[in-house]
Amino acid sequence: MLIHIICIVLYLTSAVWVGSRLFHHQGPNPKLTAIPAFLALTAHLYLLSLDIILGDGANMSMINVASLIAWLVTLTLTLASFSFSAAILMPVVFSFSAIVVIISLVVPDVQSIQLEMQPALIIHITLALFAYGCLSIAVLYALQLAYINNRLKLKKTAILHSSLPPLMTVETIFFKLLLAGTVLLALSLVSGFVFLDNMLAKEQAHKTVLSIIAWLVFFVTTVGHQKWGWRGRPVLSATFIGAFLLTLAYFGSRFVREIIIG
Question: Cβ(234)–Cβ(242) under 8 Å?
Answer without folding.
Answer: no
